[in-house]
Design goal:
heterodimer, A: 176 residues, alpha/beta, five-stranded mixed beta sheet, four-stranded parallel beta sheet, B: 317 residues, Elongation Factor Tu (Ef-tu), domain 3, Rossmann fold, Ubiquitin-like (UB roll), five-stranded parallel beta sheet, 19% helix, flavoprotein (chain B), oxidoreductase (chain B)
């Protein structure tokens, strides 16, 4: 059977090519794991005249060291981020809270297409999702994955698939 | 957009607060006024003998005070007459109509620090920011540029109340503001606000651009409304009528004069409410709302400030 698609929602982020900001006095490159090649290229291409540049690998988006780096960030600095989508948006959210403007935060396309799902029933976040429907790691409900993305949670909204008759599950499909 | 009723108010105080600026205190004829958000303005309607003026003025009283509103009007002798009417015709006890408050210049409350640049009568929206800044204990600096022979209202009071947080620059005493110096070395999360003449807005924006300060940290409000131009004719194709737009009248005023209701908030080419579709004729765009592509398309006009480039326009109204 075919469930109704809610995937017309346009909040799924689009990632364009990332450019350096030549006016910045500080360029901070942060990756979740090893710096991906695209970010290494960007880092090498960054030749600030008077400013400085720095790169860091931070596995946890809430790492206190990252927060310290951001706390001394100048008003005209630029933050470049690489990693999984939830990582990108969690770091971006911390950065916003510290006062960075949206255009100071430049996100490279996520390194995997795995999603975090936010379950609207139990509010648990399920990681590493590539299929819909997918079992919630909190309440076990088979969740329909939408393209409605929360920048705050770094996760996609999801809800009980075929709620009228949850015994009749739609066929699994890949989500991109 | 629904039309919200105008509010009838009475002028309960008029004060000359600078050589060219009068402050008006307005109280509702009945009931209470609504509280407003810092940076809000109202549109004041004035029935002149020859024409009706509608000018937007920032509310400068405490946003939580619902007993009265205060506005300040700078006399613009070369303008189309609204400010002259306010200065010469409006007397204590007179009744006026105002729109409910609307806000296109609210503080960015996520900011860690606020830096305000006020030019002359551009101090008015910031006067409504200050009580809230004080109440919320946020960090701010006020840089107030004026000419004491003309403007500079409340400069002494502000300096006395806010001390080091308020810097006054009186050009008539040769004091200049070094904008680059004010803007350099400010911490992450600083937002900048400008209210004043276009030259001041441009100077701050250019400095920000030069220093690499993010554009979304710069907020401004121009107090220039419609400027006069050449007279032209406008045809309303759906209504099948033709109107004359006089040199010192805006297209929006001409439409209002013919009882054609056009939603509007700012009357200064900023908010985008009054956009109209153009089917014929060249437009002289004077707004800061439409994108360059929209302007080039020639299919839309902001009638509050923009005019016909030729003698005639046809609007799809």
């Amino acid at each position: 059977m075919q469930t109704e698609q809610l995937n017309g929602v346009a909040s799924k982020p689009a990632y364009g090519p990332v450019e350096l900001n030549p006016k910045s006095s500080f360029h901070l490159f942060v990756a979740e794991q090893l710096l991906p090649k695209a970010m290494e290229c960007l880092y090498d291409a960054c030749q600030p005249n008077e400013g400085r540049k720095e790169k860091a690998v931070v596995e946890d988006a809430s790492d206190p060291e990252l927060r310290n780096l951001l706390a001394t960030f100048p008003l005209n600095g630029t933050l470049y981020l690489a990693g999984t989508e939830p990582f990108l948006w969690r770091v971006a959210s911390h950065a916003r809270a510290l006062g960075l403007c949206p255009e100071q935060i430049r996100l490279m396309a996520p390194v995997t297409r795995e999603r975090h799902l936010f379950c609207c029933h139990c509010h648990t976040i399920t990681e590493g999702v590539t299929y819909s429907p997918y079992a919630c790691s909190g309440c076990g409900a088979m969740l329909e994955v939408t393209d409605h993305f929360s920048r705050l949670h770094g996760a996609y909204f999801s809800f009980q698939a075929n709620a009228e008759d949850s015994a009749d599950m739609p066929e699994q499909r890949e989500v991109n | 957009m629904s039309t919200i009723d105008q509010i009838d108010v009475k002028v309960v105080a008029i004060e000359q607060v600078a050589p060219m600026i009068k402050a008006f205190t307005l109280e509702p004829l009945k009931g209470e006024l609504t509280p407003f958000s810092a940076g809000a303005h109202v549109v004041v309607e004035m029935d002149g003998s020859e024409q009706r003026y509608r000018n937007a003025y920032s509310l400068m009283s405490d946003p939580n005070d619902n007993r009265q509103y205060q506005i300040a009007v700078r006399l613009q002798e070369t303008s189309r007459g609204g400010s002259i009417y306010m200065h010469d015709q409006v007397a204590l006890g007179d009744e006026l109509k105002i729109s409910p408050p609307a806000n296109l210049f609210a503080p960015a409350w996520r900011a860690k620090k606020h830096i305000l640049f006020a030019g002359g009568v551009g101090i008015t929206p910031f006067l409504s920011y200050l009580p809230l800044f004080k109440q919320r204990e946020v960090e701010f600096e006020l840089h107030y540029l004026f000419r004491s022979h003309q403007t500079g209202a409340y400069s002494a009071e502000l300096a006395a109340e806010f001390g080091d947080q308020c810097c006054c620059y009186d050009a008539d005493q040769g004091k200049r503001c070094d904008i680059a110096e004010v803007m350099s070395g400010q911490p992450l999360g600083t937002h900048f606000y400008i209210c004043g003449p276009e030259s001041l807005i441009e100077a701050v924006r250019a400095t920000a651009e030069e220093m690499g300060i993010p554009a979304s940290a710069i907020h401004w409000e121009e107090f220039a409304g419609a400027k006069p131009g050449l007279p032209f004719k406008v045809e309303l194709s759906r209504q099948g009528i033709e109107l004359d737009v006089a040199a010192d009248s805006s297209l929006l005023e001409a439409l209002e004069g013919a009882e054609v209701d056009i939603p509007n908030l700012c009357r200064a080419g900023v908010c985008g409410q009054c956009v109209c579709n153009v089917t014929e004729g060249e437009v002289e765009h004077r707004d800061s709302y439409l994108s360059d592509t929209e302007k080039q398309s020639g299919q839309v006009i902001m009638p509050c400030v923009s005019r016909a480039a030729g003698g005639r326009l046809v609007l799809d109204i």
